[in-house]
Amino acid sequence: MLQxxxxxxxxxxxxxxxxxxxxxxxxxxxxxxxxxQMRFGERTPPPxxxxxxIQQFGLDQPWYVxxxxxxxxxxxxxxxxxxxxWTGPDLGTSIYTGRPVxxxxxxxxxxxxxxxxxxxxxxxxxxxxxxxxxxxxQYSFADVFVTLSTSILVSLPVFWLGxxxxxxxxxxxxxxxxxxxxxxxxxxxxxAFPDWVHLILPGITLASVSTAYAARIMxxxxxxxxxxxxxxxxxxxxxxxxxxxxxxxxxxxLIPVVTFIGLDLGAMFAGAVLTETVFNWPGVGFTLARxxxxxxxxxxxxxxxxxxxxxxxxxxxxxxxxxxxxxRIRFGGSGE
Length: 336
Description:
CATH architecture of the largest domain: Orthogonal Bundle
Order of helices and strands: HHHHEEHHHHHHHHH
Oligomer: single chain
């Protein structure tokens, strides 16, 4: 197991350099507005102020020099006054606000984690539950309903679904009930609602497509496992249908589902750009989208770095979980 984990961590190194290097190249050669001018809006900054800011943020240096400084700043251990000290990674300073990028993401990341956990809970409970019911009751009304509804969900754009939920539960329902019942459609807090209520609509929106895919994968895997010889043997021994399902079929059927949900959790922890933007949710995705429009490159680089590490760590945890779901799986041994 240790050998496998070490190998996977080593594989992260070229992925990290490939993603960050591509990001630097795109940002330096992409046409667009001047990031310093974006900071001042419609006002024209004095030439000496603009020159000072360009020098301060290193925008007058070649891209490879900027990239080298970015990598050095990311190192958690640095030499300070001749001594090696743990300083933590430095993601730089926002061009638009002048605040440390690390501080910005320490403030916004908890919102993304809260939203991701709500969405993944919906995905696990509804997605796996619907898939199991659909497989157990194959060709029944429940199976047809699950198959049809998941087919519709996977074809809907997430931003459109979010807008429709905002209209139905935040505007139409409010007007229909005279304001007696409705749900918040924007932000993470308000006077009228507890904070957790603000998670309902964005959580459903973020989980919608993934829940449909999880249900479809669960159904197909469970139907495939049910046709295996060991399942027929378990039935022949007189085990109940529920006993065969939960003690024999589910473990093997869950492996692809766990893979999908784990990768999806990594993507959610990396920030749901569309969902957070539609619902004005102050998380990493919303911050990153706003920074792209503002051409606030330090925040963009910092956001992508945070997302990259989140995805890589979750992927590693998902791979490790295989050994607990299926004891036949072994890591690091030859021929296994």
